[in-house]
Amino acid sequence: MAKVVMYCTAVCPYCVSAERLLKSRGVTEIEKIRIDLDPAKQEEMIARSGRRTVPQVFIGDTHVGGFDDTAALDAAGGLAPLLASA
Question: Does the pLDDT at position 40 exceed 80?
Answer without folding.
Answer: yes
